[in-house]
């Protein structure tokens, strides 16, 4: 399911126009994105949670040259499914 199909499904399920559903979905996605960019957790009970995790620097290898490479530390977004999604 892509965004267009999701908007259509939400609009049909809630009995609202597709334009209103798209505005609501865009608002939710923007809010989640902004919160995660500020390293805040977003918890949606029953659905899941978005959080930021620090990944430590590590040493790896270039597969073509077998040369050692240093991968810098970085922050990554993590999604943990909630209880309702884990039932599937």
Task: Pick out its properties.
88 residues, alpha+beta, 3-stranded antiparallel β-sheet, two-stranded antiparallel ribbon, 41% helix, elongated
Shape: elongated
Order of helices and strands: HHEEEEEH
Class by alpha and beta content: alpha+beta
* H/I helix tally: 3
Let me know the number of strands: 5
Distance between the termini: 17 Å
The portion of residues assigned to helices is: 40-55%
Strands side by side in the biggest sheet: 1-2-5
| Low-pLDDT stretches | none
For the report, how would you describe the main beta sheet?
A: 3 strands, antiparallel
| Mean pLDDT level | 94
Taken as a percent bin, the fraction of beta residues is 25-35%
The gyration radius over C-alpha positions equals 19 Å
What does this 3D model show about the protein?
The chain is an alpha+beta fold. The protein is 41% helix and 31% strand. The chain is built from three helices and five strands, in the order H-H-E-E-E-E-E-H. It is elongated, with a radius of gyration of 19 Å.
List the helices and strands and how they pair.
Elements: H1 3-14, H2 18-37, E1 42-44, E2 48-55, E3 58-61, E4 68-71, E5 74-81, H3 83-86
Helix pairs in contact: 1-2
Outline of the structure:
The protein is of the alpha+beta class.
